[in-house]
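Review form for a predicted model. The reviewer records the input and the model, then writes brief findings.
Reviewer: anonymous (R2)
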Amino acid sequence: MTNPYFPLLIALAASAVVALAGLGLSHLLGPSKKSKVKSQNYECGVEPTSTHLHEGRFPIKYYLVAMLFIIFDIEVVFMYPWAVAFNQLGLFGLVTMLTFITLITVPYAYVWRRGGLDY
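Model under review:
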């Protein structure tokens, strides 16, 4: 009789082989010519002008908006099952969801008030 974890071991080994083969093939077949342009940082379409290079930082407003989108997208994902089971959850479910919405809305109001969404 074989070990019940043997199929899991085979799946892990197969995934490791595929991952390592992909890395090896990209190293062997990929372009290897280095240049100054390829070595520069790429920051979401913002050209690395001399002003930004001397400051040492790129504007982070794009990242802030992206993170807010992800947070509110996750909030909607959690609100859908709550809305489906609202009658079964009763007052406890209502209080829990109001707490959750408050915990998500407070940072949003903070970022909005500080001007993080202004361009």
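Findings: The two ends are 66 Å apart (CA to CA).
Further findings: The chain has a mean pLDDT of 81.
Recommendation: see findings above.
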